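explain this.
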Amino acid sequence: MAEKNKAYWEVIGGNNDIGIGCNSHLFVNDDGKNNTNVLVDIGMKMGGEFSEIPDVREELKNADALVFTHCHADHIQGLIDFVKMGYDFTKEVRDEKTGEFVKKPVPLIGSAFTVSYIKAELARARIPGNVLENIVTVAHDARNHEIAIPESIQDRLSYTYETGNDGKERLKLSIGSEGSKINVSLFDMDHSAKGSTAVGLEMQTESGMKRVLHFGDWKKEDAEHSIIDYEGLKGFVNKGVDVVLTDSTSTVKPTTLNHEIDVRNDITDKLTDAIPSVAAKLPEGQRLDIVHSSIARSGNRIFDCDVIGTAEALRKLGRIKSGDTIDVYMHGGADFTRKVMEKAAEMSDSKQYNILNEYTKQTGIQFAFHSGKDVQKKGIVSAHDTIHVTTGTQADEQAQLKKLSMTETAERSTLPRGENAIYVQTQTPIPSGNNPQNVAIMNKDLEPLFAAFLTCCHSSGHGSKQDSDEMMAFVKENNPRKATVCPVHGAFSQNHLEATAHGLADKGINTEIVRNGNRCYFEEDGIRFEKTKEKGSILVVDGAISYMNSKNPYGNDVNDARKRGTVDDYLRWDQKRMFGGKSYVRQEADGSLTTVKDCGGMYKEGEKVDRMSLKRMPPKNERSEDRKWTDEKTYTQSYDGGRKGGKGGKKKQQYYSGYHGGRGGR
């Protein structure tokens, strides 16, 4: 017999036919009188032809809480765009006394780093101050349980702290009205973004509490450096979990991938080898400038690897000692991340936000951070070698790294170069479109500008098959119920989801492959999966010129513009496209396009859009069959004919290690 409560989980986005991203999941508990809606993540699709976000306008209208697992663009960028479209973090709720509808705040829930990053992104997007000021944020790792809940929503949002077997208190939020509440708990996880969490959800129904554990994006770091909250996860799983959502992005890799500590150690080793030979060619006592490129949102790479790995090399070589201060210059998006990190450290005592303080305690070496803009204003003034961190690893044409690589714009770059400068890269290109070739061209242009050009190992932010098998075995061992594991965050075209499910099934774990639009109902006699209509997506059409409507009149790409001598005009045109207004265009199931919101873009609300005005056929050298990869071991992609089959060959599926980058990286 079906129960009165209609409790379910819906996959809105993230389990895509093609491409990674648009991650979003809806959890609903409806007792027939009241209903509670919790939306977890609203991301964008990475590396696609258009900037694309899931169409969750209706879900946002009904949402009682927004929960974010971490700050990567494929998990938060959609929210930024919806706020630009007018979403103001409120929900209309009927007042029980007056019967009138009133607007009440919708809380933004995540880690200190994640909620700080989202608010900083909203401020950067020039969201009206009254919207920013009224956002209610809840950080699960807040210092001394400092959580302020406005009186107006205390009837719909409350919290307690549960003490685990390890004696640690963990936040538990209760969201919604009596009879349809959803409880939310967050647990620290390893990932390339700081503040990454798993989310535990409890839905009270007439047949008892139904539980879902959503792991978010995760991997397993080495035991010494892992921050996975195993005790918290164990405590939640011990209560009985029905459904588990797990990251499938890198499970096609059989064994554990590089850890972040491997990247740090590789940076230290390669710099320890390179610095003496570079320094030997310089006048005695001349300063070295060491430049790193990283993904802005991947705070672990910036602070734990780039900064500490370099400091350790300088310490080993005796170029820095206890009591000295290293000047660290943060350029572009790296400086943005540094400011968010400082805000998170103000909010939380979590060791992941205070990693540099721990290093200082151990070595006595201090760090002084500066904006990259200070280089232009004051120059580099330091008694010791300096560290510089920048973004632009994917050859983004407005980034400092790309500007430096081109003679026409090098003088605008704030980055150091020359006989006393060393460049270190750890980030691999996204295997999408022309990206690997563009990065290879940029690196070729950068190499002569430095005394040494070092390539260090790369670490994916997503777990391997071995990681997945071990974590799901941990869940199975501690779970009194028989849970169904559903792979998420993957592309069917790259076999992410099926490979994960089949691999776990071989281990005796119950699995279910779900697609966007699928629902999982929690019923008295178990769970039931049902396919519903997909929500569809919204294309973000940038600037006065559509995102893909025509070629830049000053060149096909920046390298073509260089040949024409039109780089300045090319970049000005591209900046207009990137930072102009936006039109948000709904993509229907039949492929038709309708503008749902105009924010200073080229299409008006309600206007039907001709797809051909958005789309162009890529030049011949961009087409997949003509792609030439610079390193077959690193960059692989599937296409008709595979590598050797040629035309008419059997379609061959190949995989790459991890999937990092794009707008904000992963």
User: Anything to note?
Assistant: The chain is about 25% helix and 25% strand. The longest strand covers residues 197-205. The chain has three domains: 6-255+462-531, 260-455, 537-615. The radius of gyration is 25 Å.
